[in-house]
Amino acid sequence: MPSIQTPGTQDLLRRRFAEACDARDAITEKAAPLRRQRDDILAKAQAQAAKANPLTERLRALEAPLYDLHNEIATIARALGGRTAAE
Known about the structure:
Largest sheet: none
Helix content: over 70%
Mean pLDDT: 93
Shape: elongated
Oligomer: single chain
Number of helices: 2
Low-confidence stretches: none
Radius of gyration: 33 Å
């Protein structure tokens, strides 16, 4: 009578490993066009953001005095009890 061999644990693990790798590769391949499209959009957005950096620096320099002015305005408003309208 011929002996029937069942697959061993190592064989089952190797088969499942190959199946999992195939599934991973299929998903990666399917996602590749979307990933490229997304990466292109992000690259363009980063380039646009880089163009804004000099403007941001100019705005920071221009608006730097606002911090002290806001504090002064708040202090005066509190001192006047909120009645800040000129009479």
